[in-house]
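Researcher: Next entry in the queue.
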Amino acid sequence: MASLSELISENSKMSSSEIEHVTELIAEWRLLADLSFADLLLWLPIRRDEKSWPEGYLAVAQIRPTTAATVFTEDLIGTEINWGDRPLIDQALSSGEIIRDAKPELVGQIMIKEETIPVIFNGKTLAIISRHRNSELMRQPSKLELNYREIAHKIYKMVSEGNFPIRNSLYNSESAPRVGDGLIRLDVNGTIFFASPNARSALSRVGFQKEIEGENLGSVFAGLGQGDNQPTDESWQTLLSGKFLRRAEYESAQAVIDILIIPLTDGQDRIGAIALIHNITELRNRDRALITKDATIKEIHHRVKNNLQTVSALLRLQSRRVTDPIASAALDEAVRRVGSIALVHETLSNQSSEFVEFDSVFEQIIKNSLDLSPRKIEFNKVGNFGSFDSKTATALSLIITELIHNALEHGLTHSGNSLTVEIARDRNKYVVSVCDDGPGFPEGFSIEKSANLGLQIVNTLTKNELNGNLILNRINNLTKAEVVFGIN
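Model: Structure for this entry, 488 residues:
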């Protein structure tokens, strides 16, 4: 399904700034739907060109309220209507004014009242919002519902004046406060004259126990604020005055609340503001728990790395004391393998993700390998690995270490001086090839029958850990060891 920007681009001649205005409106119109207890549809005029009168409209966005039952159970995005089918939409487009007080109409078994609002930007009507609500639920509104609707009318007027959404909005985040979390209404001086029950509850959690209405919101938090809770750039009185779009967080010993201030305007005049209040105590506790967990995991990887380096150092000391060259070589190989595993844990201990940026691990592997080579080797890398989970990264680091060591020790010992590692990726399938221009494998070579422990380790790890295959071949005077595997 096409994105909102694509739908607008394909069906209109809007500029990039106009498209941005409409997409920002859609990012924030959950606020409008919830305040007005209504389903919203956004209708895009369909024109042959910029100067032509619309032939009809296309529904490009739809939202249902969380504060009331929906009146539309079906998805209406993509619906096309002709000019004249919906007179209220035509009127809003023609006049550039909000069309209200229409008579309710029976849709299915529900009497629905429709209102239409032009979306205006820089004096141009870009689209029309149609607002649909159950008229039966409007007969005896509570104080909360009356305040929500009054606020909704003011914001819809801002939409029709081109003043909403507010530029550089802080609202379009999934973690931003919502109407149902708690709402406070401020007058032009920042004084509270309505607070929803959830907003009162949130303020009570952070220590404000008095009657909230009639209080100045900035003064409330300035009185509560202690130590680290004082804002650094602006005072609480300035931050929560309602003059500017602001977002702040207040934390007490008992709770943490998120505060979003949205100014309300009428033309060029400021007429007040709303404050959306969200108790995010549990969210912050989860964040802290995750941070603690991440720190613990990083510390574990750090300690595993240190332990592996200790094991490596002990093996190296033992290797120096052994007089048998075969035993000494075996211990040296064990040092190299333990070092490869330690590299993965070192990388994990220095990052927050459990996914390993494997290219940095590979760079260290190849550096260590070439430093130990007695001959000058020309090395090339083609492609990039990307990120792998720790299990895959550990297996792959051992596999590549063994293949590179095998090429340096057997393929490039007496002839050849070129080593290439190629990484090919097709979606989730990887082919990692280690190539050298040495003499190649002996005729009739078989991994299963070979005494080469390194290749047997590679074969076992590829099959058991990566669910892949190891392929050895000789192409164009190049010996190639290919590891083929997939990532779920």
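Model: The chain has a mean pLDDT of 84.
Researcher: Noted, moving on.
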